[in-house]
Amino acid sequence: MIRMDELRRQFEAGRLSRREFTNGLVTLGLSLSAANGLLVAPAKANETPKKGGRLRVGSLQASPAETLDTHAALSSIDAMRGMQIYSQLVQTTSNLEVVGELAESWEANKAADEWVFKLRKGVEFHDGRDFGAKDVVYSIRRMQDPKTGSPARSFLADIEEVVAEDAHTVRMKLSNANVGLPSVFAEYHMKMYADGWTDFNNPIGTGPFKLKSFKPGIRSVTERNPNYFKNGLPHLDEVELFSIPDTTARTSAFLAGEIHLMEDIDPTTIDLIDQAPGVEVVSVPTALYVPFSMNIEVPPYDNPDVRLALKLLIDREKYVQIVYKGHGTIGNDHPISPAYPEHCADLAPQEYDPEKAKSLIKKAGYENHTFELNGSEGLQGGMNTALTYSEMAKAAGINVKVIRNPADGFWDTVWMQKAFFGSAWNMRPSADVILTTVFFSEAPWNECRWKRPEFDKLLIEARRTFDHAKRQEMFCEMQRMIKDDGGSVIPAHGNLLDARSSKVKGLVPHPMGSLGYYQFGETCWLDS
Amino acid sequence: MATLLVRRLLSGLVTLWAVSVLVFAGTEILPGDIVSATLGQSATPEVLAAMREELGLGRPAAVRYFEWMSGFVQGDLGTSLALNRPVAELVGERVWNTFLLTALTALFAVPLSIGLGLLAVAFPRGFVDNTISLSSLIAISLPEFFTGALLVVVFAVNLGWFPAMSYVPETASWGTRLHALVLPTVTLTLALMAHAIRMTRATVLDVMQSAYVEMAVLKGVSKGRIILRHALPNAFGPIANVIALSLGYLVTSVVVVEAVFAYPGLGRQMVDAVATRDPPLVQAIAMIFCIVYVVVNLLADLVALAANPRIRMPK
Known about the structure:
Chain A has 18 helices and 22 strands. Chain A has about 525 residues and is an alpha+beta fold.
């Protein structure tokens, strides 16, 4: 029997290929995603970061509507620029543990409906003004203002009052208790602007880089902030960020060495990039999911037997292989993947039982029914997700017909409009946020119309439970309810797939977003 | 002659108008609008309604079209919905990039394709003709995105002679900029030449079979003199048309090639504008492309007129 550290040693000595290494781990009983997860963090501690250089990055986003007002950001490239220019109260580690940035410490009252944040002293904005409590108050109120158009507004809906108690203390009162409030401030929109600042063509922040030039949809250049509040960071002199929406063009630019980091690679090119010299695939398990969701208010999806049958027919191992080339985690029909600390490891995985699926459909009286599944090329994984699912259904003798919808207008005309449709949800800062957004009875995006008062009660109760074990129990129960009864089929969670040149060191992978949750600029350095 | 010119001009204007209606209808037919495209999944019905109200999208399509039209004829390209900035300004930032790329291509492609076309005529059905015909047939059959990707793999990724990404900031030297433009220019030149060579060859060969050329051959005039002095002037009108058609074709190819080489020109801007559902921007760029097409064809007609007295002075 081979042992894990032996495998790792061989891999690092270059004797095993990536594929052999992960396969070895899988035979040891690790899930493939966990094996991939072990691979992404081989940063060797003994290397001293080199100063200087210009890091060139290619993003898949390109829009004339790109903005430096990160409160209203809509795309990953906005998020990347935001992480360079501004800072937040807190960030999360790759295990989603909350760590202080502009906030030094925080504390809640017993009821978890009043919070006090103590701010770091001596932090300066790019133009030299001091950062303090009034800036935090301004920024939070600005995100709450509907006129700002911030997608993060709903995360802050429960903050009734935010006041500066003194120059470096902020007090917040919540209308509903929430023990998880700090992790909300780790979401990428939550940038702290200078009090009253509105000139986003000339942004000032407290982030690791200052803006040098910016052309929406084309390119931006930022340069090191010498007064950054974290000592010794950033290592780089400059970050140059390009919009290269065409995947082939982005891949070519990357392989030709014109960009060091590439956001989002096509899963079908993984092997090619793996074999190319001097570059590496960065595959990071996340909780992002592409479900097949049903409107459970209409037949046949109102029948729990039908819902269960549509979940039982998937060979999930095979699904992850086909759709994500193995770069994914097996899903359990609820959104809380192992990337969330609230993931319930005790919950049994959904079975693969085509026979049972068939008999359940028969029992429900839909033996000859054609289930019309609406997919789209625009969803992560493209049409592969729906087509693979439909093939697996065929093997179980269930007829799932896939309808191809254009990516344009999908969210407007198909999503939540049809009875059975594909969808996509990014990982959120906490399990509470994703459950509140998609599974709470009154949520506007409750895409399955799955309304269960007992679930709502648990969710609200968990928000005021400080006791970790109790809270975890509640989250387990919620995951079980969604898995057994919910209207979403969640076969897998595809990994975040980016690529980096071997010259780039210090990239810290993060499950919540590409290239270290867009924070690559702060920690990366270039090895010549 | 004058009436003919006026007629051509008028038909050009009608074409422009028809295209503007088609493009507007096209952006209307597309599912979703700027609001749903911008907000995507994060749109709630209230936010959607509020934003549509603010942008005036609730009004009938005909009203919006005539508003745009009346602005356009007065030289006002309107305001981008996505950015709330004048379209003229946005387009202005990109139009020179595209102009540079197309001008460079035309500079190489036009003389080369006429030259090679004539060469093929000079040695018909021989090795030269076959080689030229076969390679132009291959070039015609390969779409630009493929040729472009192929050139990138060989000359950017493997050999590293030229960059794969053609964007260079305006502040860079002309040498750097031209170096970055080599691959997209070659891609476009190949596509353009393939068409132009074949059409030049066909037109001149056609003239070569006429009675007066046969007469010249019988009189013992040299081959080069026949082609250059007798056949070419008569083929000039058709060749001008070939060039016009090719340049029109160039304007559409540039959309694809700009995407492949991540080059920030009008073509890529149009693709991005369609994705964000920004009708004023789409409309303006479509009109620019259309105007180029119409003007180039008009010029070709003029050249044909100048070269051919039979059309210039109808009986």
